[in-house]
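Propose amino acids for all 402 sites.
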């Protein structure tokens, strides 16, 4: 092989590395969530849009490198989710994974992120294990968790007279955790739990579960599920007539599900949330921009807003560290810097990875109170983040004692 040919090969190789399609020198963010199942309208493409908006608003670069967003559907299957994460980390140069509704997948990806020294930021994930015994120095839990929602609503509903509970619970880590937190709050507040039943993810017929709830003697039915499961089960409960003598409580009833559930059925229901599009000028401006970009024209929920805000903070940390390759260093920088954005306001990230910000007790409006398609909720109370989330000492994350 002569020297001229070798020289040409070297030039070609350098052109390929520098070509726009070869982005080995970019900061790469992966949005991993459900894009075709029961959580698709709650995260799905909306979380991808939120991440891209964050990158654009930040200027498109971090640590002097372009920022790219990739996305995939984990189909609510742990093997598929962890397979995508492994490929992203080992072959595709992804530096951080965001969102991940489905706590079983989130826990698996959190472990892999620590193993590969990458970053995992949970916005759609709910389990408190992420900031408890399964915490890692590479994980941040941003938007909400089962403790804040389950405990907050359990306590509030008992104080309003709903003292006898029956739970209809999704049969996986998230549902179990949500029921546990709500049940403990109910008992601590002077209520009692008369029974519970568990259902598979994506259940279409809740008749047998609702009959058990009716026969239990409870006056509150707590739905410890999420996404389309919550909407389907609550709608069928209303059709069964449970609303006449039972209070229906969707422990994670998201705003996106309210139009399909209908204000007639949902009016008066209370939910906990750290974000609502109509809180202030900043949230309203973001919601308008978001709705213009998403095919459904839906307004953003808390988990999609959490992706936006956490990506902004992540990019600030990448800039501070000077690169994205050392995930542990980036998460440490995220914890060192106070958070501040137009959607969640000022906050901070604890040693255990828990992001702290206020939560709001919101009530579903009656049909006559609503002035537009997404005018669905009103603020009943504001809860300080330190009061809403589990204390760091109670979580027993090993990082908290370091």
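Proposal:
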């Amino acid at each position: 092989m002569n020297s001229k040919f070798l020289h040409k090969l070297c030039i070609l190789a350098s052109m390929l590395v520098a070509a726009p399609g070869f982005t080995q020198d970019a900061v790469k963010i992966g949005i991993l969530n459900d894009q075709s199942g029961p959580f698709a309208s709650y995260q799905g493409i909306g979380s991808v849009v939120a991440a891209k908006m964050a990158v654009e608003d930040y200027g498109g670069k971090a640590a002097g490198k372009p920022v790219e967003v990739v996305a995939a559907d984990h189909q609510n299957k742990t093997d598929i989710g962890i397979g995508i994460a492994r490929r992203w980390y080992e072959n595709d140069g992804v530096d951080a994974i965001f969102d991940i509704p489905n706590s079983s997948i989130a826990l698996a990806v959190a472990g892999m992120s620590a193993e590969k020294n990458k970053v995992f930021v949970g916005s759609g994930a709910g389990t408190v294990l992420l900031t408890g015994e399964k915490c890692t120095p590479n994980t941040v839990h941003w938007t909400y968790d089962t403790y804040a929602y389950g405990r907050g609503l359990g306590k509030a509903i008992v104080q309003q007279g709903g003292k006898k509970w029956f739970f209809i619970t999704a049969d996986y880590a998230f549902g179990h955790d949500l029921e546990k937190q709500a049940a403990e709050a109910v008992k601590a507040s002077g209520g009692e739990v008369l029974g519970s039943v568990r259902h598979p993810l994506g259940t279409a017929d809740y008749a047998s579960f609702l009959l058990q709830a009716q026969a239990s003697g409870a006056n509150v039915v707590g739905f410890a599920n999420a996404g389309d499961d919550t909407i389907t089960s609550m709608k069928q409960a209303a059709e069964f007539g449970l609303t006449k003598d039972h209070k229906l409580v969707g422990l994670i009833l998201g705003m996106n599900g309210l139009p399909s559930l209908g204000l007639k059925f949902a009016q008066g229901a209370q939910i906990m949330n750290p974000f609502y599009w109509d809180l202030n000028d900043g949230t309203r401006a973001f919601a308008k921009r978001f709705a213009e970009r998403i095919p459904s024209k839906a307004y953003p929920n808390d988990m999609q807003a959490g992706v936006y805000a956490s990506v902004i903070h992540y990019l600030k940390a990448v800039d501070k560290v000077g690169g994205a390759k050392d995930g542990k260093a980036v998460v440490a920088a995220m914890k060192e810097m106070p958070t501040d954005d137009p959607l969640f306001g000022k906050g901070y990230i604890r040693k255990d990875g828990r992001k702290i910000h206020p939560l709001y007790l919101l009530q579903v409006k009656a049909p006559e109170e609503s002035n537009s398609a997404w005018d669905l909720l009103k603020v009943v109370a504001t809860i300080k983040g330190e009061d809403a989330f589990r204390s760091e000492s109670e979580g027993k994350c090993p990082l908290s004692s370091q």
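The longest helix spans residues 302-321. Residues 1-23 have pLDDT under 50 and may be disordered.
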